Amino acid sequence: MEHKKKVLVLTGGGDCPGLNAVIRGITKRARKEKTWEVYGSIEAFNGVLNEPQQIIKLTSRKTAGIHVKGGTILKTTNKGNPLKFPILLKDGSVQELDRSEELVRKIKDLGFDAVINIGGDGSQKISKVLSQKGLNIVGVPKTIDNDLSATDMTFGFQTAVQIATDSFDKLVTTAESHHRVMIMEVMGRDAGWIAIHTAIAGGAEICLIPEIPYDINKVVKRIAARYKEGKGFANIVIAEGAKPKDGTIVAREGEKGSEHVRLGGVAFQLSKQLKDAGCPAEIRETVLGHTQRGGTPVAFDRVLASLFGVKAMELVINGEFGKMVALKNNSISYVSFEEATREYNFVNKDSFLVKAAKGLGITFGD
């Protein structure tokens, strides 16, 4: 009987609509070969590093129909970076250990021939280091923020924008009914892709993003113009990482073991700034938070995620390691981990997207 090769799949970082479609794409493509078995590590690399280990076989029964389901059947975490693995000490402090050598050894001892790491910028930086340490690894880009520059788009982004736009549409009608200013806060730690796409789709008057620090007086002026026109209401989309020209982002300490500070609450900061700057309108705030990450992925994200899954497995089959799959010029290709992690995908304030938004009358407060 022919010896079957084994590939280990994992999902790391924040969850994202479309992760399950990638997992399904990998397993379906692997089954066509009849020489590969697919396994999943629970909670990213934690499934390998934890004792007892949590690794499951991804059978056709386990992956059937999961492409329509949000989240990830393999669970995920942002507290399992093997390069800076958090260890909680008795005094309550956290110590970070580099467990990458141990991780590579354990994966090889378990008999895995390859690993597919589905994750964002942080996950692919981990992939790059593990690849350099001799692990046969392939990456799949994942982020609702669309902030990976090596791929034209990431799956999950379109779903996040759709959820935000649906919510924004609802806020427009209540803003109009009450003659209010509605502030809607969306995700976007360092990049304003969700915010600007939602602002254009929803017809916002004001869009505030991390890449363009805003002048609160210009925002107040735009609101005043709306009321002067007799329309008597205004809708604002703000990314969680947006900041005023003379201020900082709203952040608080993250949970123990997490590498990130927690953003959120910028809508309330903006509300206070508007009132302090003399905005007379009634203001209400809505923070979408994790609703943008949840639920059924839209068709576009299911398709893109499925294509990424198939391509990732084909790279494994062909022994093309040290690569991340990517959408480039409407075709599925791949880039090196070096290229994948070289630069962050910010919204360019001189891009056609921003210029078109301004052409539609959207103010960025600059």
3D architecture notes:
This protein is of the alpha/beta class. It folds into 2 domains: 5-155 and 297-328, Rossmann fold (3-Layer(aba) Sandwich); 158-294 and 348-359, 3-Layer(aba) Sandwich (Rossmann fold). Helices cover 36% and strands 19% of the residues. It contains 12 helices and 15 strands. It has helices spanning 19-33, 46-49, 60-63, 100-109, 121-132, 157-178, 193-202, 216-228, 266-276, 299-317, 337-340, 352-359, and strands at 5-11, 36-41, 55-57, 85-88, 94-97, 114-119, 137-141, 181-186, 206-208, 234-239, 251-252, 262-263, 283-287, 323-328, 331-336. A 7-stranded mixed beta sheet has the order 3-2-1-6-7-14-15, with helices on both faces. Strand 9, helix 8 and strand 10 form a beta-alpha-beta unit. Helix 1 (19-33) packs parallel to helix 10 (299-317) and helix 6 (157-178) packs across helix 7 (193-202). It starts with a strand and ends in a 7-residue tail after the last helix. The model has no long low-confidence stretch (mean pLDDT 91).
What would you say about this model in short?
With 366 residues, the chain is of the alpha/beta class.
Feature tags:
366 residues, alpha/beta, Rossmann fold, 36% helix, 7-stranded mixed sheet
Molecular shape: elongated
- Give the tally of structural domains: 2
Helices and strands: which structural class?
alpha/beta
CATH fold group of the largest domain: Rossmann fold
Residue ranges: pLDDT <50 for 5 or more in a row?
none
* Helix-strand pattern: EHEHEHEEHEHEHEHEHEEEHEHEEHH
